[in-house]
Write a structure and sequence with these properties.
By secondary structure, this protein is α+β, with helices and mostly antiparallel strands. The chain has five helices and seven strands. It has helices spanning 3-14, 33-45, 69-75, 89-94, 100-110; strands spanning 19-20, 26-27, 30-31, 49-51, 57-60, 83-84, 87-88. The N and C termini lie close together (5 Å). The relative contact order is 0.20.
C-alpha cells in the first residue's frame, strides 16, 4: 500500500469523523474501515456514493462489501478486503469488532504488507 494513502486512512480512522459500522461498506451513515478508504478516494476523485433502493445502504463504484478495483489500484493495496497476516481488515472490522483505532494501528505498523 502507498504510505501516503495509508497515513491519510489512519488519520481518518482516528478522526472520530466516521461512525463505525459492519458487514457492508456504508449503511445508515456507519462506515466499515474499508468504506473510510473509499470515502477518502471519493473526496480526492469526485466520485460519489450511490444509494441502494429501499435501503439506507450505499455503494461505491458498484461495490457494497469490499474495495472497488479502482480504489485497490489507487491505494496500492494487494487485495479488495485488506489481506494481512492470514486475515483481513474487513473480517477484523466485521467479525472481531476491532475498533477503528486498533485497525489504524495495524495499518500504521503493516502498511507495506497491505
Amino acid at each position: 500500500m502507498h504510505k501516503q494513502i495509508a497515513e491519510m486512512w489512519t488519520s481518518a480512522l482516528r478522526s472520530k469523523e466516521y461512525a463505525q459500522g459492519s458487514f457492508v461498506l456504508l449503511n445508515k451513515n456507519q462506515f466499515c474501515c474499508l468504506a473510510v478508504l473509499c470515502d477518502i478516494h471519493s473526496k480526492q476523485t469526485g466520485n460519489s456514493w450511490c444509494d441502494v433502493e429501499e435501503s439506507e445502504e450505499k455503494t461505491y463504484l458498484g461495490e457494497s462489501n469490499f474495495l472497488p478495483p479502482e480504489v485497490v489500484e489507487w491505494s496500492g493495496m494487494n487485495s479488495k478486503n485488506g489481506q494481512i497476516f492470514g486475515t483481513n481488515l474487513a473480517y477484523l472490522n466485521d467479525e472481531k469488532n476491532l475498533c477503528f483505532s486498533k485497525i489504524a494501528e495495524l495499518i500504521d505498523n503493516n502498511w507495506e504488507q497491505l
